[in-house]
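Record pair follows.
FIRST:
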Amino acid sequence: MKTKKKSIAGFAILIYFLIAILVIVILKFPTADRITDDSGDVAEVKQGTELLSRYESQDTAAVEKEVRSVRAAVAQRAALAASARGESAGEADLSTAFAEAVVMGDSQAEAFEAYQVLPSQSVAATIGRSIVTADEDYQETVGRNPRQVFITYGMNDCLIYNGDVQKFIDAYSDLISRLQTDIPGVQVCICSIIVPSDAAVAKKPALAGVTAYNVALQQLAVQKGLVYVDASSLIRPELYAPDGLHMSKSFYQSWAYYMASCAGLI
């Protein structure tokens, strides 16, 4: 039995390694047809050999984490490219990708359903919602027993906590722990708070703290070993809605695709 488990683990590591190498090759050599014998190629081969040795000494979880990081980088580039063209990234695959996932949060999450980017069963959100008023969304999410939960709270919390980042993080951490207890095996993903426009911050100065809240959320993700979905690089001035707080449909399409890619759903 132990031999069989080791064999399965070894096979999983090999698969993850091959995927990682394939992605790296595509990213670094998009036009290369073959490897020549010049010094640059020899150095790359040596680098690949060293990478193989490193993977041989890692366990499956570590390799999977690194591959997920590479996939996230690729997903981000695809989403950025689509956003720059005013298009969506992977729109046709979203319903399938989120079939067993739920995005819970405030109006930013509600927009996925409002714009029909995601089906209603994949969204548990209400306009004006915050971490402290999320119980209804929480119960709805737990009732669906999803495999993945993406949390997008934060915009309204910046106003409620008014700079008390640690208090916000404590409440956020508690929500994650409850989800992991009530939905055994669930994959929780932390999403960055959408950075508002300068005009919106001028009207609501407390929103100037969004960056600090996002730094804390990223640190929380690292501490808990969770996926952190940073949407900041997808934001462009022309994608803001008139209020400077919400975004256009194309942004939410790219953001959903990026979420799915970071979580390994596509």
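SECOND:
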Amino acid sequence: MATDRVGSQMSTGFFDRARSIAPEGYNRWLVPPCALAIHLSIGMAYGFSVFWLPLSRALGVAKPIECKGMTLIQAMTTTNCDWRVSDLVWTYSIFFVVLGAAAAIWGGWLEKVGPRKAGAVAAFCWAGGIAIGAVGVSWHQLWLVWLGTGLIGGIGLGLGYISPVSTLIKWFPDRRGLATGMAIMGFGGGAMIGSPLADQLIKHFANAQGVGVWPTFLVLAAIYFVAMMSGALGYRVPRDGWKPAGWTPPVASATASGGSSNGYVHLDDAHKTAQFWMIWAVLLLNVSASIGIIGVASPMLQEVFAGRLIGQPSIAFGALDVTQKAAIAAIGAGFVGVISLFNIAGRFVWATSSDRLGRKPTYAIMTALGALLYGLVAPTLIGGSVGLFILTFCICASMYGGGFATVPAYLADTFGTKFVGAIHGRLLTAWSTAGVLGPLIVTTLRDHALAAKVPAAQVYPPIYFTLGGLLVLAFLINLMIRPVNPALLRYDEAGAVSQVTAHSEATDDVSHGAAASTSSAVLIAWVLVLIPIAWGVWQTAAKASVLLR
């Protein structure tokens, strides 16, 4: 027996799940900062647009070296022509398609090996992908940028996004919405920190020979690797059977949104249920309704209100001179900043509120309110109050973020917590689909209207009506969600005993975790993640302050 125990310990690797099981007395509030360290890093994917304009003149430096008639295939390998912004934006598309695919493919693996190993792999992929992208920029090979930053980095995005979900839900069974809201808020805030930091680094490294992007990539890769590895190494998972002090699990019964408070649906069965696909559809429609409009937020505000934004209500958008367009462009950028803040805040506020309201009612409120704002309020504000128009879309942005942050808890309520990370990974294919569908709807309707010579201010009402219709459909589907068939529920009473035994045999080396669980350790961990968040908020607020002038 002793020999077997020693052999078991020797075969347990440092990154194995068994070595990350928390010791007695571990403070669960150390886990959210670890999740935020990872999500704040990968959230920079939202901010990569800061690189497009500098990269579009990577060869010419002062101005782009244009090659007329260059195809996308030619752009992938050219060393003589600067890339177009339209070529570079494909990196953004690859990010989110691969994110959803990676989360779906490796979600089950994550549940098996634990968040520490998955977080470490995410760090190597995300930071390593950006570093490979730096080589691609240095060699001026677009295919290498796509391979490194887009594909490999996208895998890091997928694993990094879902790695904390099941862990936090298991640590906070009494506050599932709060737990997921804290982490996914970080993903929304990553660009808020990364974009201004990247902008400052680009300016620092830029010179007459280069635009400063590839060294910026390398610096960011180093920063993100350290942050993500720190988060991954800090992860701990609770022993089976653990519960918060003073919390009594509800009796085994079907919850309001489905599933059971004590049982779980196996990963192999979850995607075969109607409930999975209904939640998938609700997320798809909720994200599609906002992601496209957020992408055109700045030009939308400028085209709808034009001269009114600078106190010249009689001047239409097409009649603005260069100076006036520059002035309203700054206001448009401020609008994007405010939307970003509401997107981030909504992830925390809506997810936390769902702990009291319930997940199904929360989605009902978000989709119904969104349909009202898009379908009825926004069209009437064309030519009306600029302030109310901005507020309307800020509320919509908060519900866009809130949908992301609330859905992991919705899944845990419906299918139980055991496989929630893997189930969430599969559900994120709805996000990948929405990333194509939402912008396609908005840009198609917008381009059609502009081609038909519709006045700029009147281009958007048909778009608002369409998006409102998507949310009405989401509202109806959400109402149809019922508890899963009790026959699908499983219970692991014996499994809990065996895992606790494995903990006692294989995790003596994490006894130092008890010392790290002091209140000072919690304080330090939170300060380390809150400082960059505060800096990002300050930077964004400074840009958004133009709206108050």
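COMMENT: Strands lie at 264-265, 489-490.
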